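Customer escalation, tier 2.

The customer says the design service returned an amino acid string that "doesn't look like it belongs to this structure." They asked us to rerun it and document both sides in this ticket. The original C-alpha cells are below, unchanged.
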C-alpha cells in the first residue's frame, strides 16, 4: 500500500508543478500583451499628435526612417509641444495655488 501513497503524492506534485508552470506562462503572456497594448497606445498618441500639429485631416503614413519631415523640423515640433505642455502645467499650478 506504500506504493499507492507514493503515486498519490506524485500526482499531487505533478499537479502543483503544472499549476505553477501554467500560472507562470499566463503571467508572461499577460505581461507581453500589456507591453504590446502600451506600445500601440504610444503609437496612436504619436499619430494623433502629428495630426494635431500638422493639421492633417487624413491619416498620415506610418512612421519610417524615410520620413518626409526632416529631423530638424520634427525636433522643432517636439520642442513647441513641450513648451505648450510646460505652459499648461504652469497655468494649472497657478490655479491650484490661487484656489
Amino acid at each position: 500500500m506504500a506504493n499507492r501513497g507514493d503515486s498519490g503524492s506524485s500526482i499531487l506534485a505533478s499537479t502543483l508543478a503544472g499549476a505553477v508552470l501554467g500560472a507562470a506562462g499566463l503571467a508572461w503572456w499577460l505581461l507581453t500583451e500589456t507591453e504590446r497594448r502600451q506600445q500601440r497606445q504610444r503609437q496612436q498618441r504619436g499619430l494623433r499628435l502629428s495630426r494635431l500639429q500638422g493639421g492633417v485631416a487624413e491619416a498620415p503614413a506610418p512612421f519610417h526612417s524615410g520620413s518626409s519631415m526632416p529631423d530638424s523640423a520634427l525636433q522643432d515640433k517636439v520642442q513647441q509641444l513641450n513648451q505648450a505642455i510646460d505652459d499648461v502645467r504652469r497655468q494649472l499650478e497657478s490655479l491650484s495655488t490661487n484656489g
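Tier 2 assessment: The sequence is consistent with the input. The mean pLDDT is 80. The first helix runs from residue 2 to 54. Sent an explanation to the customer and offered a walkthrough call.
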